[in-house]
Structure formats: structure tokens, C-alpha cells
Specification:
Keywords: Aminoacyl-tRNA synthetase, ATP-binding, Cytoplasm, Ligase, Nucleotide-binding, Protein biosynthesis
Largest sheet: 7 strands, mixed
Strand content: 5-15%
Family: Belongs to the class-II aminoacyl-tRNA synthetase family.
Helix content: 40-55%
Protein name: Glycine--tRNA ligase beta subunit
Catalytic activity: tRNA(Gly) + glycine + ATP = glycyl-tRNA(Gly) + AMP + diphosphate
Distance between the termini: 53 Å
Enzyme class: ligase
Radius of gyration: 35 Å
Shape: flat
């Protein structure tokens, strides 16, 4: 026989962005703890609204499964004396296993106890299990309330805990479990009883609670689409915003609002940002892709007096847009170029100077990158965009709507008559802003974005502000990943250690400290690059091979990794074995000067001839990342390598001959060194 479990944790309103993680946790914890208790079930799911976290477990066994185990004890020599009688060791083992000593089994020279643990009644175990699930949940921030010592995301207000139709008795923070839940704050009629898990969803719906997030999502999308069709518009859907709205309401009703068309004269971003980021509204485009003076939103309730709610939302948005219009008009009175001097008034970061200092460093770094990568961009354009890059932070629009940094800088630069590529780069410097975001597409934007991020990261590390597993207040991890993706997408072969050194010189970091900071930055960037490769499901042997380098070059490492995978390098066992033997011989040797006059054997001459021939061809393949072609060439030298290693004594008694043979091997190994650390491929 089986029953169902229902757990509903009633709280005050939980932040919407916490809910997906909480529902995932409660489901995983339930599975883990039921499995650990040997309690079988058929399915688990988690549901929730802003005020409740629900766990539904179907087909739960009414009794733990019996567990049989074969436990190993002492050896026969220890367990029995010379007369075959059990010793104290055997009796102690049997006692510990709760069986008679004569029931011990001898097998493979040891004694074993076959023990069967009879499962307990599930009902008696559930109070502790459910309580443990609740107290094991973790949150970005938790709180305590009243005189309680329990930490939870929000104060607990009620608990529903049922096994079948019976209450699972326990209490947390003076809240006793039962069958009573609470209805919708405004539409519900107060408390109501839940008879069982099977009736939970429908009973909650009767009290204006849509407890299934997926059902709420479909109600919202259907409502939005109906309204969009009526207005002839296309919804500007934002999945992150939609997820947030889903967990802001318990009973969703879609509505459409309107704002004055005069606001459409504002830059589109200045309208959309207040809508989405401040009011949680969804904008719409017309059939031609133009922004409409309409918005969609969701009411936490039914459609009663919906027009009143609509007007209220319109008034709030109108006030926001009035502010945006005022700020925009005021900002236009002063060009970005006229704000450059004012950057001196704003501290970028304590220890790293002002925004004016930042702009001057950006000018130097962008020019450095331009010449290092031989990109051919005009230095004057780089200096201009660097000077203007942060000036929009001084505008009223960005001060009010910080999400518009870069966006408004681009708009104002266009209005000021700056070159289009300069205006675009001011926006692109902040890309990517989050995981999966777009990367800069223009060369100027890529250079400025790299310079900005590398300056911030290097400067922070120079001050000892290195991110930890739980602390990254300056978003250095995100900026590091952004740098790596920009470099790999652009295919720019750049040794980042040279850039670190250059920026540290601009920061006047103590010379004695620079090497340490560069090492820290190299380790940090390398780990992030490794994580990127791992997220792409790349073979860890390949990752370790290409990252074992004295230089930090993300684009080159990515190209080499892709080439190694395409060449199926790990299947080249004979090749790898031969060159690994060579690598083990030379260790860290670097000298490659070979004197053919010192050769004493045919194997030396053959290897030298093979290496000399390969040097003329294999590096041509490396230059274009044709590892397949390089492998084909290198394979021609494998017989000569093996013949040499099998038949020639490298440690010759004549020091000159010994050194010459070591140099020949070093020169041989240099043929495969561009691939990476081949030892990591085994």
C-alpha cells in the first residue's frame, strides 16, 4: 500500500528571484532524504507561489524497505581459537550485529554477518524528515523574527503536512503542522482545509490560488497574446522578467495599459527600461518593429474593476516617463565632450583614482592593444572613445536609471555628432552584461570593452581585491569571462600577461609586487578559461594539454583545442608514446644545438635527418592550426625516434656526445611542443 505526502510551507511574500532555486532545492532534498531512509515513492514535484512552497510526493510506501546486508567481520584466525571455538572478537562482532555468534558465516577466510533490518513505519519517520527538509533549505538571505531563533527566507505563518489524509505532526518556530492553508490575500475567504495531496491543486484553485508555476505562466502568456492580438502588436518577451512575474502573483490576470505617444520621441531604451526594470511591464512593437505606446502587465487578482488597476499602472508609468523626458532634455543641453573634465570629480575606486584617471588609462590601453594586435584602428579614434566612455555616468538619465549606462552614452554621442563607430563602442564596452549576452561586434567596441574590463580586473588584483567563492563585489568573475569570450570570438592572439604588466605599469604598482599580481591574474584567468572549456563538454585531457603553457592566450588555446579534437589526437597512441618517451628523457632541457660530426651511430643520423626534414613542414601546419596535417608529418618520424631510444645510449661516457644526443632529443621534442603538454593526453 502507498499514500501521498503533501507539505505546504506558508510564509510572508518571498522575493520572486529566490523561488526557482527554492523549489528546486525542496524537490532535491525530498528525494535525497527519502532515498536515504529507504522509503520508496513514484514521483516528486514542487509547486509554489509568493506565499507558499509546496512539496507533493506520490505513491509513498507506508513502510521502509527491509534492508539486507552482508557485513564483513574479523578473519577466521582471529574469530576462532585452535579448538574452533569463537573468540571474544567473534562474540563482540556478533553482538554488534545483533545476531547469535553461531549465525556467523565463514567465507574467504573471514566471518560475515547476514543482517536484515526490518523497515519502520513511514508515518513515524516523516515528522523528522519533513522538518529536516525545511531547515535544510538555503537562501541568498534569511531572517529571524520575533523571539525565534529559526532562520528562514521569510517568517513562517502556517504548515500543511499530510500523509494520505492524516496530519504529519511537527512544529517549527511555534508553528504547528496541520491541514489548514490560507487563501489569496484579496480574493480568498480566509483559511481553508486541504483534504489530501491529490486534492491540493484544485482546492487551492477554488480559493484563487494557482499553485502550479507552469499553469500561471500559461495563463499569463495566453492573456498577453489575446491582448496583443487585439491591439495588433507583438510582445517584447523577456524570459527572465516573465519568470519573475510568475512568482509575483498567485492568481494572474493580464491587462494592457497605454501611455502618451509624445513619450515615443524618447530613445527606445529610455522607455523600455522604466517599463521592464522598474514596473515589470512588457512593451510591444507594431508590425513594422516600432515601439507602441502600450504595455502589458499582470494583476495579482481577477478582472474585477480591471480598468481601475489599468489606470493606476498608467499613472505610475507616466510619472516615470515624465522624469525620463525631463532628464533627457536636460542632458542634451551639454555634450559628452563637455563632461570630460567633470570626470575628475568622481572616484572610480579607492586606490585606482578618479573616472578621469580611468579614462586616461583606457586611452593608453586601447592604443597598446591596437598596436599589439595590429588592428589598424586610428589611434585618435581610440583616444576619443576612451575620453567619452564614462561621461554618460554624469548624466541625469543614467543617475536615475543606472541600467542605461552605455546605452544613453551611445544615444548622446549620436546626438552630439560623434562618429557612429564611437557611439556604438560606448555602448558595446559593457558587453557582455550577463551570461549568454551579446558580445561586442565592432572592432572599436571590442578594444574598448577589453581595455575597460582588463583595467578594472588588474587594478582590483593590484589592491588585493581578489574574488573568493562567495564574494565578488566588483563582478570581476563576470568581466573575466567576458574578456575571454571577446578574445576567442574575435580570434585575437593576445598574451594577456603582457597586458597585465602594461596596466600595472600605468598604475605605478611596485615593481617587486608586479610578478605576484601577474601570477595571480594568470591563475584566475586560466581557471575561468578552463571552466568555459568544461561547459562546452571538452575532454579534460585536451583542456589540460592546451592550458599547460607559459603564456596566457585564450584565442590561441581555443583554436588549438578545437584542432586537437578535430585531429582525434588521443587516438594517436604510437605518436604520443614515442614523443612522451623523448619528453621524459629531456625533462626541462632547452639547448637544441646539434653537431652531426659527433654522431657515432646510424640511429643518430637517421633521427637527425628525420627531424631536419620535419622542421621544414610541420610548423607550416601549426601556423594554420592544422593539427591533422601536423600529426601526419610527425608520424613519419616515429620509427626514427623509437630506433634511437631503443638502440642508442644517451648517457654516453663522452660528455660532448652525451650533450649532443640530449640536444638532438630536445630538438626532436620541439616538433610536438606547440601542441601543448602531451603528457596530459595520456
Amino acid at each position: 500500500m502507498s499514500k501521498d505526502i503533501l507539505l505546504e510551507i506558508g510564509t510572508e511574500e518571498i522575493p520572486a528571484h529566490y523561488m526557482p532555486s527554492i523549489l528546486s532545492q525542496v524537490k532535491d532534498l525530498a528525494a535525497k532524504k527519502l532515498d536515504a531512509a529507504n522509503i520508496t515513492y513514484t514521483s516528486i514535484r514542487s509547486l509554489g507561489t509568493p506565499r507558499r512552497i509546496a512539496l507533493l510526493v506520490a505513491g509513498v510506501a507506508e513502510k521502509q524497505a527491509d534492508v539486507s546486508a552482508k557485513n564483513k567481520g574479523p578473519s577466521v584466525k582471529i574469530a576462532f581459537d585452535a579448538e574452533g571455538k569463537p573468540t571474544k572478537a567473534a562474540m563482540g562482532f556478533a553482538r554488534g550485529q545483533k545476531i547469535a555468534v553461531e549465525d556467523l558465516v565463514v567465507e574467504d577466510g573471514y566471518v560475515y554477518a547476514n543482517v536484515t533490518t526490518i523497515g519502520a513505519e513511514t508515518a513515524g519517520l516523516l515528522p523528522d524528515i519533513l522538518k529536516d527538509i525545511i531547515l535544510s533549505l538555503s537562501f541568498p538571505k534569511s531572517m529571524i523574527w520575533g523571539s525565534q531563533t529559526v532562520h528562514f527566507v521569510r517568517p513562517l505563518r502556517w504548515l500543511v503536512a499530510l500523509f494520505g489524509t492524516d496530519v504529519i505532526p511537527f512544529s517549527i518556530a511555534n508553528v504547528q503542522s496541520g491541514k489548514i492553508s490560507r487563501g489569496h490575500r484579496f480574493l480568498g475567504t480566509g483559511d481553508f482545509e486541504i483534504p489530501s495531496m491529490a486534492a491540493y491543486v484544485d482546492t487551492a484553485r477554488d480559493h484563487f490560488l494557482i499553485v502550479d508555476p507552469e499553469e500561471r505562466k500559461q495563463m499569463i502568456l495566453a492573456g498577453f497574446q489575446r491582448l496583443a492580438d487585439e491591439k495588433g502588436g507583438t510582445i517584447m518577451m523577456d524570459e527572465d522578467l516573465l519568470e519573475e512575474v510568475i512568482f509575483l502573483v498567485e492568481y494572474p490576470t493580464a491587462l494592457c495599459g497605454e501611455f502618451d505617444k509624445e513619450f515615443l520621441q524618447l530613445p527606445e531604451a529610455a522607455i523600455i527600461t522604466p517599463m521592464k526594470d522598474h514596473q515589470r511591464y512588457f512593451p510591444m512593437h507594431d508590425k513594422d518593429g516600432n515601439l507602441m505606446n502600450l504595455f502589458l502587465t499582470v494583476r495579482n487578482g481577477d478582472d474585477y474593476h480591471l480598468e481601475t488597476v489599468q489606470h493606476g499602472n498608467e499613472r505610475v508609468l507616466r510619472a516615470r516617463l515624465d522624469d525620463a523626458k525631463f532628464f533627457f532634455e536636460e542632458d542634451k543641453k551639454k555634450k559628452l565632450s563637455d563632461r570630460v573634465g567633470d570626470l575628475q570629480r568622481i572616484v572610480f575606486q579607492d586606490g585606482l583614482g578618479t573616472l578621469k584617471d580611468k579614462a586616461e588609462r583606457l586611452s593608453a590601453i586601447t592604443v597598446f592593444l591596437n598596436h599589439k594586435l595590429d588592428l589598424g584602428v586610428e589611434d585618435e579614434d581610440l583616444k576619443r572613445v576612451s575620453a567619452l566612455a564614462k561621461t554618460d555616468l554624469l548624466t541625469q538619465m543614467v543617475a536615475e536609471f543606472t541600467e542605461l549606462q552605455g546605452v544613453m552614452g551611445c544615444e548622446y554621442a549620436k546626438i552630439d555628432g560623434e562618429k557612429p563607430e564611437i557611439a556604438t563602442a560606448i555602448y558595446e564596452q559593457y558587453l557582455p552584461r550577463f551570461a549568454g549576452d551579446d558580445l561586442p561586434q565592432t572592432t572599436l567596441g571590442k578594444i574598448l570593452g577589453l581595455a575597460d574590463k582588463l583595467d578594472t580586473i588588474t587594478g582590483s588584483f593590484s589592491l588585493g581585491l581578489i574574488p573568493t567563492g562567495s564574494q565578488d563585489p566588483f563582478a570581476l568573475r563576470r568581466q573575466t569571462i567576458g574578456c575571454l569570450h571577446i578574445l576567442m570570438e574575435a580570434g585575437w592572439n593576445l598574451n594577456l600577461q603582457e597586458v597585465f604588466a602594461y596596466i600595472l605599469s600605468l598604475l605605478d604598482t611596485e615593481a617587486a609586487k608586479r610578478a605576484t599580481v601577474i601570477d595571480q591574474l594568470t591563475d584566475y584567468f586560466t581557471l575561468r578559461l578552463k571552466n568555459i572549456f568544461q561547459d562546452e563538454d571538452m575532454d579534460y585531457h585536451i583542456i589540460d594539454c592546451v592550458l599547460a603553457s607559459d603564456t596566457l592566450n585564450a584565442a590561441e588555446a581555443a583554436k588549438r583545442a578545437d584542432a586537437l579534437i578535430a585531429a582525434d589526437i588521443r587516438s594517436q597512441e604510437d605518436l604520443l608514446q614515442a614523443f612522451t618517451r623523448v619528453g621524459n628523457m629531456i625533462k626541462d632541457a632547452e639547448d637544441t644545438d646539434v653537431d652531426p660530426n659527433l654522431f657515432e651511430t646510424e640511429e643518430e643520423k637517421a633521427l637527425y635527418a628525420a627531424v631536419t626534414a620535419l622542421e621544414n613542414t610541420v610548423h607550416q601546419h601549426y601556423a594554420v592550426y592544422d593539427i591533422t596535417g601536423a600529426i601526419q608529418e610527425l608520424s613519419k618520424g616515429v620509427p626514427a625516434i623509437n630506433n634511437f631510444l631503443d638502440n642508442v645510449l644517451v648517457m654516453h661516457e663522452n660528455p660532448a656526445v652525451k650533450e649532443n644526443r640530449m640536444n638532438l632529443l630536445t630538438r626532436t621534442f620541439d616538433l610536438i611542443r606547440p601542441i601543448g603538454d602531451i603528457k596530459k593526453l595520456n
